[in-house]
Amino acid sequence: MTMDSEVTNKLGPDILSYSVEKVMVRNIPQVTPYWQMRHIKELMRIRRLDGVPVTDDEGHLLGIISISDLIICIENKDLEAPVSKYMTTPVKCLILSKTLIEALREMNRFKYGRLPVVDEEFKVIGVVYWWSLFAFLQEALDTSMVVKKTIPSEGVISYTYQVLGRDFVHAGNASLQMRKSLQQLSIDPKDLRRTGIIAYEAEMNIIIHADKGFLQVKINSEKIEVTAEDKGPGISDVSLAMQEGFTTAPDYIREMGFGAGMGLPNIKRNSDIFQIDSRVGVGTKVYSVVNLIRRLK
Amino acid sequence: MKLNYIVNLIKGRICVCQHLESIEIDKAWAADLMSDVLASPTEEALLITSLATPQIVRTAEMVGMVGIIIVSGKKTDDTILNLAEELDIPIVSTDLSLFETCGILYDHGLRSN
User: Fold this and answer.
1) What string of DSSP letters covers B44-100?
2) How many whole angstroms separate alpha carbon A178 and alpha carbon A176?
3) What confidence score (pLDDT) does residue A2 get?
4) What residue in B sits closest to A263 (Cα-Cα)?
5) Is B82 a member of any domain?
6) Is the pLDDT at B29 greater than 90, yes or no?
7) pLDDT tens digits, residue range B45-103?
8) Is B23 within 8 Å of B66 (Cβ atoms)?
9) Which of A23, A142, B58, B87 falls 20 to 30 Å from A32 in CA-CA distance?
10) How many domains does chain B have?
11) Which helix (H) or strand (E) holds A4?
12) What average pLDDT score do residues B1-25 get?
């Protein structure tokens, strides 16, 4: 059996050519050289920033004040001093048109923890912090890992998506990506909709109840199979969980519009074949089949 | 019924949309639960909701909704708006309540199915 396996994720060649805009932190307070250092100390403490750019009244970049500048000032017991006395200048910065990879290189080369981002008039519009870069990269790695496999001899294409428990920020991402992949095949919109609902409900179940799991979709010319498998608490009474309105989701999840106890019944309603296998303390596996209205070529 | 006509009826504000007048709406569905959206029998409908979360945009996309009205003046942050823009789903916000919004649109002939 020949098998092509291809891993695609947001860390593909595209990601590093994104503009620094994607990772920069906006709404950084405008600090001017005549601020007192004690105000900087408070600002850094409250906003948990380890450095802020210093600008003139029009917002043009003049320098940067970092935690190490602040330490020197505190050692000198000089908190009444103006920012201009302690700020680092001249300062390295990034123009908005720079890419993520250029930001990474600059920060790594000079060991900077932060770089202000300026527009063409040299006005500060944000700051790239090491942690904002880190968060972006981690998120890209974590949430959108997609493994695509093709088994030509069997005429099967499969996509597998990783799903992380409690990750409500990205809830639905795996199903959305799955839908995008399916849209490229000429699947009837009714089948696409049914498959989408099954995948979304199954993904939400993993996010609400489990630690982690995966969503897999297999397509051949006649049917789509969706498998959602998780490592989680399992379901002690499956027939109860299949009843509409039965839920074990906590209130905070229900407030977000999830956990109404309609998930499993809704998956079943949209499936031509539905199987559920759950073991308490181990996890749950949901398997659904959607028979295609139109055969795929 | 064109989406821009609906916006006028409910005194809405357009948050995300490129081509309002080209979107034809003939069905609508109101829900505050994601499962209710997913269980909606209607495709290509307008979703009316008081939830302002990114999931509502993803859910709408999954079931093929053509637009979202967020009622009761709920705040829509950048995450929602960016996602809606990426998925090309128009978002309209109104200060009217869910009940009033649905009432007005029903009165003007919009149905669920």
Assistant:
1) S-EEEES--SHHHHHHHHHTT--EEEE-TT----HHHHHHHHHHT--EEE-SS-HHH
2) 5
3) 37
4) B35
5) yes
6) yes
7) 999 999 998 889 999 999 989 999 999 999 888 889 989 998 999 999 999 999 999 99
8) yes
9) A23
10) 1
11) strand A4-8
12) 88
Distance of residue B11 Cα from the nearest chain A Cα, in angstroms: 25
> Has residue B113 been placed in a domain?
no
pTM: 0.67
For chain B, the residues whose C-beta falls within 8 A of a C-beta of chain A are 32-36, 38-39, 43, 51, 53-56, 58-59, 61-64, 79, 87
- In chain A, the domains with their CATH numbers are 15-138 (3.10.580.10), 144-291 (3.30.565.10)
- The pLDDT tens digits for A181-229 are 888 888 998 999 999 999 999 999 999 999 889 999 999 999 999 999 9
Residue B70 lies in a domain: yes
Residue B5: band (very low, low, confident or very high) from pLDDT cuts 50, 70, 90: very high
- CA of A80 to nearest chain B CA: how many angstroms apart? 38
Which residues form the domain of B51? 3-107
Hey, what amino acid is at A192?
Answer: L
CB A185, CB A194: distance < 8 Å: no
Contacts with A242 from chain B: Cβ below 8 Å: none
Label residue A266 by pLDDT band (50, 70, 90). very high
- For the domain that residue B35 is a member of, what is the CATH number? 3.40.1390.20
B51 located within any domain: yes
Residue A24 in contact with partner chain B when CB distance is under 8 A: no
Q: CB A257 to CB B55 under 8 A?
A: yes
Residue A14: the pLDDT is: 67
A201–chain B Cβ distance below 8 A for any pair: yes
Cα distances (angstroms) measured from residue B35 to each of A200, A202, A233, A254: 10, 11, 22, 11
Is A262 in Cβ contact with B61 (below 8 Å)? no
What's the CA gap between A21 and A190, in Å, rounded? 38
B55 to A260: CB separation less than 8 angstroms, yes or no: no
**From CA A100, how far away is CA A21, in angstroms rounded?**
9
